[in-house]
Each structure stands twice: as C-alpha cells, then as structure tokens.
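SAMPLE LOG
Freezer: B-3
Tube label: C17
Construct: single chain, 110 aa
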Amino acid sequence: MEHRPKRPRRQTASSIGEKAARKPSDSAALPWPRIAELIDHGEITVGEISPVGCAAIAHDEGQTLAMRVRRPSETFLQLLTRLHRAIAKAYTDDIFTDEINPPPTPSKIQ
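STRUCTURE (predicted):
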C-alpha cells in the first residue's frame, strides 16, 4: 500500500436520462455506497486476471484506488465488500490497496 496525493474531484457531464433515473438517495440504500459513488465518475472491473485469478479493481478518473484478489472460497459478495472497504480507505485515509502487484524490494546500497 502506498500513499498518493488526492486528486480534486472533477464534475462529469451526465445525460438528462441518467439524472432522471437516479435519485440522490439511491446510493445510500445500496450495500456498497462507496462503489455506487465511484461508478458515477470512475469504474470497477471484476474478472479473471492471469496469473492471479479473479480480482476486483477500482479506478477513479485514471487513478487506481484498490486492487483485491478473490480469496479461496470467498463469495463474490465478500469480494465486493472488501473492495468497498478498500475504496473507503483510499478516499478517507489516502491508503491504496494493491493485492495484485508484489511490493517493491529494497535496493542494496553499494
């Protein structure tokens, strides 16, 4: 996990149809409000990534917030719940979760 500076939120244009279909309280009623908020201006991707297996990744306007790998016998709902918590950590504490890429190894001082 690494700390990255927060980027200012950018207002994105949405169509009239999207505004009419979405009510302000919609995301609060969902079990993962951070995911619902994120997909208004970012994206999540869930699927098979070789060689790690199934993973869930959250991006916010070009910045990766969280990458979670599905654990053995973990349900899809549990994976999304862990992704939701990692997104919240990124937004509130600037802690970015990466379970896909190995941490960098320290260089030897010569």
